[in-house]
Amino acid sequence: MTNYHCVSTDEEASGTRVEFMAEDKSCSDSFSCALGECEGGVVAISTELVHASEELDYALLKLPASGVEAAQSYGYLRLKTRAGVVGEQLYIPQHPMGKNKRIAVEDDYASNAALLSLSASTCGTEGYSYSGDTQTGSSGSPVISFSDHGVVALHHCGEMCANTGIPAKDIVADLDAKGINLAEFDGIDDGSNSIENTERIPAYTPPVHEATLALTSRLTLDGVIILASGFVTIDKVEFTLTKDSAVSFAVISVEIADNESFVDLNGDCRASYLDSVMYLFPKDSSNSVFFVDDSNANDFTAGGSVSFRDPHKTTLLKKGSYVLAIAPTGSSSDDALTGKAKVSDAPEIYSCRTRSSYGSYRLRISSTEGQNPFQFTRLPATVGIDSTQCHKTAEAICSG
């Protein structure tokens, strides 16, 4: 499958050459093939046009009889029938400018590529918008869910900073209306089994990854978020990074673990915590570098949390001045910049298992070993905690 604006006629389809695994010998920006230099395996020198839609900008092509062997050798992707979810992590394998394979997994701020909107209008077509670098020649690339490897959209175009893709579910519905049932060819991902897509991809030997650089703690502070008079406070940390660095930000707060047990994480002898989010902004800018809500298992356990609801973020950050905001979940970027949020419903602030008017958190900021790149210029009010003074059991602290 590709775009209509790439292949739209029988003549164009018959002259389409299909080649897989056209990629570099190494995964490095210092090595890049020019057009045609990184040859892959040619599986067809001609295709047949099954159906094309100018409105949805897609074309379904059929390989010759050898296509079955190609699917067995290289695997295949399936189109999702569900709608995309704003915020879901994505990746985009592509051949920008006709060059070697590149896979977009991050945006310009080293945040994960993600779905941004379900109703974008770019290049004259309605579709999904998402982050992640693309370029001329990326048209027709699959936009893939990071979680289960199903195709969310067909990349259609990019103008300025916006990528737009045709929703996979719309393509499936259009083909079905034309009497073409992709399920007959195992081309549908209905979401019933999250691991089925990986079973369509041949086994491979993962590469040996380079050792991860150790992180050194640069700041640990204990803060509190307070609800009063219909507003909830939002704490901000301002800092300057003196050089490009690998950095880590971790909020450790939720004290009801994912197994429902209570843990007094900060040793304050209280069962106060909040479900929080983090925003990072460049100084004097309203455009966030990243937004983090929940964490994956590896991140939050390594960071000292007991629940995925704590936000953790490890990333590469460029030299410059920044503002980090710690806020209750549900807070907008405007709230984060203002330093408070007006609430109509009780925010996710707790005392044990009931809602409360304040929630404690611990913030840890780290960077790779060596000279400290952080210069902290503004810190929020902190609370003093002496864990040696707490002699209660976890059950006694959280008896509710």
TrEMBL record:
Coiled coil: none annotated. The keyword Acyltransferase does not apply. It comes from the Eukaryota. Keywords: Virulence. The keyword Membrane does not apply. Gene3D superfamilies: Trypsin-like serine proteases (2.40.10.10). It holds the Pfam family Trypsin_2. This is Serine protease. It comes from Phytophthora nicotianae (strain INRA-310) (Phytophthora parasitica).
